[in-house]
Design a protein that fits this description.
Helix content of chain A: 40-55%
CATH class of chain A: Alpha Beta
CATH superfamily of chain A: HUPs
CATH topology of chain A: Rossmann fold
CATH architecture of chain A: 3-Layer(aba) Sandwich
Radius of gyration of chain A: 16 Å
Strand order of the largest sheet of chain A: 5-2-1-6-7
Oligomer: homodimer
Shape of chain A: globular
Low-confidence stretches of chain A: 117-122
Order of helices and strands of chain A: EHEEEHEHEHE
Strand content of chain A: 15-25%
Distance between the termini of chain A: 35 Å
Largest sheet of chain A: 5 strands, parallel
Number of helices of chain A: 4
Chain lengths: 147, 147
Amino acid sequence: MDTYQHILLAADFSEHGRLVAQKAASLAKLHQARLSIIHIVDNLTIIDSTYGPVIPFETDLNEQLIQASQQRLKSFSETLSIPEERQFLEMGNAKLEIVATAEENQVDLIIVGSHGRHGFSALLGSTASGILNHAQCDVLAVRLKGD
Amino acid sequence: MDTYQHILLAADFSEHGRLVAQKAASLAKLHQARLSIIHIVDNLTIIDSTYGPVIPFETDLNEQLIQASQQRLKSFSETLSIPEERQFLEMGNAKLEIVATAEENQVDLIIVGSHGRHGFSALLGSTASGILNHAQCDVLAVRLKGD
């Protein structure tokens, strides 16, 4: 039977993200698959009203952001019983980092939350589409309700 | 446990499409879900070198195309043990017809084949993305290899 061996959950820590995570955990159990988790930290840029986006000199800010995200990823992963070696924290373009991590770790299913096209959620929708178009493995887009 | 109750397979009858169908059948079994199938027939238009796309006067052509597709859908569905009342043949825009049929039938997972962004397959990739962006339920994009 076709089942998945290694599932990668693209996680955010929102309330919606928790629902996606619960579904990922259920599916991993049903498929008897390993479950890994990835969270992407955006590069920290500051928008200056004159010069537009600038990289801050204060790189400590980036380090603080990474440390805070690492901590959240760790506690989030614990609720899903995902061991440390299967927790991935990356910086940069979400779509590219998720696809690359999936390939490096022989993931056969990426699970990502998906919003509709309207308003605030268009950005997240486009991440899901981008993953779908670039991934070398299957992609499950979990539709978030009330959107 | 989160499982799917009603899965809709967006089918084409290519060799790739058969692999997607096998995966859909396996997943339906694993989830103990009902499996439905939909195939979309493009509206038949003829490209005239002077006038561009025109709707043919000979509407019999459309009817013949529909009948042939109906026959293929029926025999394809039989290999998957999908009963007639869960076989859907629609004409028109693939993305919209698939999403509408899913909603009308309380589908909670659409399964669709997905190609990469390059060359011939960009069209199919964009159908998968379109479904993902418009569906009110989860969408599994099954990546076709060697693409």
